[in-house]
Design brief:
The structure is a single chain. The chain is mostly helical. It is built from three helices and no strands. The longest helix has 45 residues. The radius of gyration is 30 Å and the shape is flat. The N and C termini lie far apart (86 Å).
Length: 149
């Protein structure tokens, strides 16, 4: 019976050494990467109102685009955290600011400050805009080439 207990203890030690310790290390690296990401997203949030967002992020020690970190350690650990966190359902994407919508056709908005007013015919599209899709003629279609026999 003592020999059987020795085998069980040996198996438990191997499971602990090769299973639990590496898993704990991976979880630790994930938490460390999450802290890197929290710091980066905090810097992004604090630079939202800056005149030059890229310079502001660089002054806080981050890059404005991916890979986001100037050093390899934070780059790999942060990337690992984004990968695992993304698989778990987290979103690390920065909100994209939508460009301002063009004024509707019926709006009689005043021209922008400093812009010279243009004399356009009533109902005509303002200069620099594309015509509506219905006004664009379709491309000519060539007849199919007969297959060689």
């Amino acid at each position: 019976m003592a020999q059987m207990m020795d085998k069980v203890l040996t198996i438990l030690k191997k499971i602990l050494f090769f299973g639990v310790f590496p898993l704990a290390f991976v979880v630790f690296i994930f938490f460390l990467g999450e802290q890197f990401e929290v710091g980066r997203l905090g810097a992004v949030a604090s630079c939202e109102e800056a005149a030059n967002k890229n310079t502001c992020l660089r002054s806080k020690g981050y890059l404005p685009q991916a890979p986001y970190y100037p050093d390899l350690g934070r780059r790999y650990i942060g990337g690992f955290a984004r990968m695992v966190g993304g698989d778990l359902g987290a979103s690390y994407k920065e909100p994209v600011v939508a460009p301002p919508a063009p004024p509707a056709e019926g709006d009689a908005a005043a021209p922008a400050a400093g812009a010279a007013p243009t004399a356009a015919a009533p109902g005509a599209a303002p200069a620099g805009t594309l015509p509506p899709p219905a006004a664009i003629p379709p491309l000519p279609v060539s007849p199919p080439v007969p297959a060689k026999k």
